[in-house]
Design a protein that fits this description.
21 helices; Rossmann fold; 3 domains; five-stranded parallel β-sheet
Length: 596
């Protein structure tokens, strides 16, 4: 491996790419470019400023911020001092922030805005080890906060360049680089300790697996950098590649606009985003004129017929080729333009992507490459080869990494990217990491004849009914979420006589239906009580049930009158459902489904 550490990689690439654009971000409504030189200057200045403030090697510094250029600067700047970066989701609550600060033994925290400062201020008395608070934005009435530009200016004038150079040379491959806290679908989050060699290993192998596809890429980054998946795929791999531009989306709400403005060649996302795009496309088509609707579904059928040839890079038969070109003009071109018009492929991770969804987008001319990993494996472990994607699978392990299936079906992983352990939790570490370095993933799956891994569910989510039947809820839930009337679905049935589901409807779609069909309602709660709405959801449920064994089918359902969110406690920052939290919050409704 060419580099000794992530900072070593960064500074060498910065030297090689002087004058080139590294990052593009929106400032006062205009996209602004930041060069490697500008970014490096800020990163060095921050490192010097932190040293002047007294930060020591292997001390912990938290970052509590939305995605922005200063996040990139802070991460490399912290590591440059030999210290350890501890990212915190910008959506975390004050008590969650305090937990991570205290559990990680952080001495400094870098924040973005007054909103994040309010969280720190609310819990400051409960964080006794915190020495400094540094803010990207200038804050009023915050005498205990240092302004980021002031810390940079102080560092630049400090005369500590030799100390910084010494620290950079002293960083060892086994040194702790970051502690990333699991998003916590159950219990308190655990801090996965990732070393410099862990991060370099996954960066190197991930790049190697995709390098034949990479040229001068333009990527749009919108997943939180606090999550390891985005940090590796949206930050470290592009740094390693060092060609092209990283554009930072304004927010998740602005992604659709930013895609059209930036015209990315690649982007990284999670299945829930693709599911939402699918739902929006289908709802718009269903509301369209009969002829346009017919043309759309004809084009999808043509794309599906062409898919086997395109997957194998084979020429299309003559008449199919003509149909495919016409479908491209009438339908596919508009879909591609909605994501900028230059997309080579998108990447999906963080949760399983349904086979049907991958096939649907491929039929429209958009290839989604699915991968797999855990926070504990430096976020990524494997992926589909871009030229040989197999939908419904997460691909094959990257070169040098090992995979096997335990007797109970659990996926076991081993490689240089596997974490050192959980911070201050030796017993929890022993539960998942054995003496030979095999990590228990907590996922259930199997390897097919071609060596591709299929994930069927989370081990802890498996339902064992009162009758002793084992059911994997995730495939059933994913099928339900493919229906345009359903936003979210949670299947219940463990130790119960049969399975039921809590369903969050797609309110936007249902409101359009109500408007078209003249269905009166006053609010969402009133809307889900309408017989027509229940009829639509029941039809969707019956369609999904028909594809599963009788014992797997959902016998009853309840509609939830509000969307799941992080703020209301049902979702993690990576948009995964907190199953335990949902079951606890809606216990009365669930009990009602069984007692009726």
């Amino acid at each position: 491996m060419e580099y000794r550490s992530i900072p070593d990689m960064y500074y060498k690439q910065a030297e090689r790419n002087k004058g080139k654009v590294l990052i593009r971000h929106k400032k006062e409504g205009t996209w602004v470019d930041i060069t490697w030189d500008q970014n490096k200057d800020a990163t060095e200045s921050l490192a010097l400023g932190l040293i002047k403030l007294g930060i020591k090697p292997q001390e912990k510094v938290c970052i509590l911020s939305e995605n922005r250029n200063e996040w990139y600067v802070s991460d490399i700047g912290i590591q440059s001092t030999g210290a350890v970066t501890v990212p915190i989701y910008a959506t975390n609550t004050p008590d969650q922030v305090a937990y991570i600060v205290n559990n990680s033994d952080a001495v400094d925290i870098i924040i973005s805005t007054d909103k994040q400062y309010a969280k720190v201020k609310a819990e400051k008395k409960n964080m006794p080890n915190l020495r400094h608070i540094i803010s990207f934005d200038k804050l009023d009435n915050a005498p205990d906060v240092l302004w980021f530009p002031d810390v940079l200016a102080s560092g630049k004038a400090s005369g500590l360049q030799q100390e910084l150079e010494k620290r950079l040379k002293d960083i060892k491959s086994g040194d702790l680089a970051t502690i990333i806290y699991t998003s916590g679908t159950t219990g308190d989050p655990k801090g996965a300790m990732l070393t410099q060699s862990n991060l370099l290993s996954i960066t190197d192998t991930a790049y190697d697996s995709f390098k034949d596809e990479l040229t001068d890429e333009v990527m749009l980054s919108f997943l939180p950098l606090s999550h390891g998946y985005a940090r590796i795929a949206d930050f470290y791999v592009p740094l390693y590649h060092a060609k092209g531009v990283q554009a930072i989306a304004e927010s998740i709400d602005k992604v659709a606009d930013n895609l059209r403005e930036i015209k990315p060649t690649m982007f990284v996302s999670v299945p829930r985003v693709y599911e939402k795009v699918y739902g929006k496309i289908i709802s718009q088509v269903e509301a369209d004129k009969p002829m346009k609707k017919k043309i759309f579904y004809w084009a999808v059928s043509v794309g599906s017929a062409a898919a086997p040839y395109l997957m194998e890079n084979k020429p299309l038969p003559f008449f199919l080729s003509l149909k495919y070109k016409l479908a491209g003009i009438l339908v596919f071109k508009k879909i591609k333009e909605a994501v900028g018009g230059r997309l080579k492929f998108a990447i999906s991770g963080g949760a399983p992507l349904s086979k049907e969804l991958g096939e649907f987008f491929f039929a429209l001319g958009i290839k989604i490459v699915e991968g797999y990993g855990l926070t504990e494996t430096s976020a990524i472990f494997m992926a589909n080869p871009p030229k040989k994607v197999k939908f419904g699978t997460v691909g094959k392990p990257f070169k040098g990494y090992q995979l096997k299936i335990a007797p109970d079906g659990e996926i076991l992983l081993k490689g240089d990217n596997v974490m050192k352990g959980y911070y201050k939790k030796p017993e929890a570490t022993k539960e998942v990491l054995d003496k030979d370095g095999w990590l228990s993933s907590g996922d259930i799956g199997f390897i097919d004849k071609e060596g591709y891994l299929h994930i069927t569910d989370r081990k802890k989510d498996l339902i064992v009914t009162a009758g002793g039947k084992n059911i994997a809820p995730q495939p059933i839930e994913n099928k339900l979420k493919m229906n345009m009337y359903i936003e979210e679905a949670v299947m219940i049935g463990d130790k119960r006589p049969y399975c039921v589901a809590l369903i969050v409807p797609s309110f936007e779609v249902l409101k359009d239906v109500a408007k078209r069909e003249g269905i009166p309602y006053t609010n969402e709660k009133d809307l889900i009580e309408q017989p027509r709405v229940k009829e639509l959801i029941e039809a969707a449920l019956n369609e999904v049930n028909s594809g599963f064994a009788k014992y797997e089918t959902i016998k009853k359902f309840a509609l939830i009158p509000q969307l799941f969110s992080q703020e209301t406690g049902e979702l993690t920052p990576t948009i995964k459902v907190k199953r335990n939290a949902v079951e606890k919050k809606y216990k009365a409704i669930i009990d009602g489904l069984y007692n009726a």
